[in-house]
Amino acid sequence: MAWRKPTEADLTAVMSAKEIEVFQRSSTFGEVDPSESLMNNATGLVRGYLRRGGVRMSPRANEVPEEILGPVMDYTAYTLCQRMRIPITKERTDSWRAATDLFKAIAKRDHTPEDYADDDTAAGGRPQPRISDPSDGAILG
Fold it and tell me: Ramachandran region of residue 57, left (φ > 0), alpha (ψ -120 to 50) or beta?
């Protein structure tokens, strides 16, 4: 699995139709949509837990491992419901609680998501040489 930045589609995938409907009704024209900001806040929080857990991090802001994207969105959806005064269901609270428990387990190293691996890193974690075709004028490295 890869690391990536969450999208609004990821957020709406974990929200109920009722939550989305209430959110759309409670948003006034011209008001800034808080979902992007809340997703960034949530990924920042989770990246802190990942860092404490010793996980090799993506250098790009707001990227998290795809394997924990669902819990990150559950956390974000709960926060969005609080911010927008959307009634919070027991299921939403349970999902938020499970997400925060997972984040704490990551920080304590009781759960280890995948480390970030860029294109220059092999599965063993060692940098791999990149060899370009000399005919394209690129430097071999």
Answer: beta
